Fold:
Amino acid sequence: MTQSPAITVNQVAVAYDSKPVVSDVSLAFPAKQITALIGASGSGKSTLLRCLNRMNDGVATVSGEITFHGVNINAPQVNVYRVRQQIGMVFQQPTPFPLSIYENVIYGLRLRGVKDRSLLDQRVEESLKQAALWEEVKDLLKASAQALSGGQQQRLCIARTLATRPEIILLDEPTSALDPLSTNQIEATLSQLKKDYTIIIVTHNMQQASRISDWTAYFEQGKLVEFNQTAQLFINPKEERTANYLSGKFG
Amino acid sequence: MKNWSNRLTGPSPESRCEAHGRWITRLALVVIAALVLSIIGFLLCRGSRLFLTGEGTLSAFLLGTNWDPGHQAFGAAPMIVTSLFVTLLAGLLALPLALAVALATTEILPRGAKRFLQPGIELLVGIPSVVYGLVGLTILVPLTRKLLGGTGFGLLTGAGVLFLMVMPTMTSMAIDALEAVPNQLRRASAGLGATRWQTIHRVVLPTARGGILTALIFGMARAFGEALAVQMVIGNAAVMPHGLGSSAATLTSVLTTGMGNTIMNTPENDALWSLALVLLLMSFLFNLATRLVSRKKG
Amino acid sequence: MKKIELQNRLATILILSLAALAALIAGGLVGYLLASGLPHVSWQFLTGSTKSFASGGGIFDQLFNSFYLVVLTLLVAVPLALLAAIYLSEYAKQGPVTTGLRLAIEVLSSLPSIVIGLFGYLIFVLQWRLDFSLLAGAMALTILNLPLLTRACEDALRQVPQLQRQAGLGLGMPKWRVTTKLVLPAALPGIITGAVLSAGRIFGEAAALIYTAGQSTIAVDYANWNPFAPTSFLNPLRPAETLAVHIWKVNTEGLVPDAAAVSSGAAAVLIITILIFNLAARGLGKLLARWLSR
Amino acid sequence: MRNKFFLVLGVALVALLGLGAWQAHGTTKVTKVTNVGSTALQPLVEAAVPGFLKHHPSIHVTVQGGGSGTGLSQVAAGAVDLGSADVFAEQKAGIDASKLTDHIVAVSGIVPVVNPKLGVTNLTSKQLRQIFTGEVTNWKQVGGPDEAITVINRASGSGTRLAFEQLVLKGQSPIKAQEQDSNGTVKQIVANTPGAISYIALPYLDKTVAALKLNGVAATKANITTNRWPLWSYEHVYTRKQASPAARAFVAYLQSPAVQRHLVEAAHYVSVDSMTVRRDANNQLTRVKGGE
Structure:
């Protein structure tokens, strides 16, 4: 690793009520790379992802340190909204708001009080281009976002996240509700985006992890088992449990 | 480093907006809580006067069967029994029909049916209780007279009018409860080869049970508190009922009839407030019981 | 297999016939009221004012008062119930306090309206010196409608998918913004249904108003738009008799010879008014949803 | 832009309201007089308000119901200016009658009524008493058809019931029967129930029910003024001993010829002036001179 990590997780444990879901995870996510979090359902990978922009606030108790630019984001004086503006999130299912495509993209900016029309126009075009949606929707910016197909909606959600210019984008199984064609398009988009953004993606699809990610972390029962460059981890896993999971053996 | 820690900490328009929102919703809740608690406190205070002044005893009030406040007889048992019975009867009559309408609109009939139903239900809710009472007097009382003999005034007629009054509210809430059942569940059940009835019976109804119980509670609560309409058809005589056709009086009807004719802070008036307190306590117990039942099974 | 299908068919028939029975009862009721009331409704009846002892009185004042009281009450009750519902569904943690509060609110719904009316009389009318007034009536009716309204709002809010909230939060929006901008517009149809049902109860309520808004109307000036003027029709501090109270009064202590006609005519007018009001409220709700989500 | 629009709208609204408040404040001061009490008397008192307003434009009178008990309680507590009642304050326990001033504004006849299909037109005082005490339960026992008697009593504590019990039952207690509070409801129930009997105030009598003669005497105004028809009671308006001038003015107007000659007649009450007897709170009759 030549660059300093984008965000660092140090001895993090998460519990719902008093039931632990993630325990003692330490991990440094490399900047401007795609990191995939894999593991069986309930392994705690989604929970960890949601901790990275404090989406677990009020839902679970998080201990340990999550450091972003030297700041522990769970510190009491930290403003959660500013963290989330720097670390965006895209969810399993497309979540377009019941508005036009244009309004969806600039939603975050509008709320921040940006009024400059030309800046907004420019952001819409940029973000949609980055999300590889511009060509398909440039003539229907005023149309309702809910008329788009599932794949288009998900790319719109990515564009919406991009429009606020975050540093890190968290994706929680972004293609699990999509068909293979749309999945391909999203993957291509993500590969393009890593030039400018740090991307952390939770996926159940191991091919997807191996196709697009630079780094992969394997989780089992709330613990980080192995973290390595994707090629290494998939071809030559150091841990037996990783190897078992990758080859479809459990227990 | 310094730069970043500045960028991520301290208040922002967002955090101010959030604090503002929390504050305003909490304020609303405090206002409501204050209102509710002051009413409850008010009733506790007024309702216990009869016993505190020594004019009546609690046991004589709850178990006595002679209600004649003008002559220091404060036995509220006949009204308690009547209120409970009439409410239960109305609820039990209304529930199947309300549920049937709700099932028909959400599970069987095409979606358009709801459009006609909803305004209809809302209309029925808005008809003043006096009008329900008049309808009861001109239609239900003669009907009961033919059916059971006697005067036609009595428990059954009272329950009938209440049934008419609570059915719309219950239907509307039952529809909401059924609509809250996710469609995936229905599809999953149908996908397993279940018939519509099996899906309703094994998936939809169990899932919506909490909501249906709430509909029942709200419907019966309204029946419990209704006065003007019942008073016109139940015979309004404070005696222990001995059959479906016998005249009786509910807590609310006695309360409403007597309130305007008694002087405040006299035992007669205090006894009426005690009736109101009983009403409050009974519906409290009733709510609590329903909650426990739905929690145990759900 | 055969048995299951037979069972299915029987159950369907049973449900449909029970539903048809309910519809028949309800339809018969409304039809009966309209049929017995509409013949007495005339332009003069709608626009005239009440007479004390002679026949031929109208109901214009009462009709307007009903409308105004519904508006005033909803103005007080809906924000209060909605904010409380937002707190209960979005902010509050499940615990004994919220459960207790919910229970208390629900228990409130079974209090007879005359008790609420007397409470309103002793507190609002006397203690707070509001006199017999629309405002005192609106506050009593607010109490009466809080349980149903809070419940309806809370249910409506809860039915908005969690994902929509998360999407907003993920963009760095504060929860309050997410609630007002995303959740509220989506929940609006449910909230409107609750409000419309409450409006129905307000239109039909009499017992709670007898001691609060009063059962007589002062002569008001429909040309005076200043809500502070004592005789203005918009003054919320004037006593006002609503249509339902009028129906009650005519039936109980009416001295007019045509009491039965006035009562049934007023009931028919009330039914039609509620219908119009509800349709208008729904239309308005659609506009509001569009406006809120912008 | 939208925000600006609403800001302007809001400012304009506040300005208008402020102007309105200022303007309303500047107008002549209005004195409020509130009357609470007997629902039966309410229509009469309410009808007097427009005429009173012509003479005293600055006094606004509000007339509300609530029942005689409420009226007496509230006027005694000082919550309202006037309390109307159909009983003497002395007859109600819990009211300090010495603090109140009684103003009798009308006399109301009480008339027993039966279902019109019954065909009974006359009863003796004894028969009426026996019906209401439950000694007689079938109409054929008093010369009517073979039909069970349905007794509908008035709400206990109401003025009409008190008067009826004192004048008809003479101290015996009535059977437990259906109780109704208002004249209108009683009338509707009697009209709809075969074999029903009850009693209402004379102004409320109409064709839906049949009035009974008592010992052959009909309930007419002329018979009431001479006490040949003994079932009648006063309609009172009470004020506190130190009533406000506005309240006193209104009571005076209620007792003035303008109301007594026209409104009282129109409402089918009997004017106080035309009575040749007077009755006190203890039911003692005294003959007065004059009358008509």
Notes: The longest helix of chain D spans residues 2-26. Residues 14 and 150 of chain D are 62 Å apart (CA to CA). The longest strand of chain D covers residues 100-114. The mean pLDDT of chain D is 88.
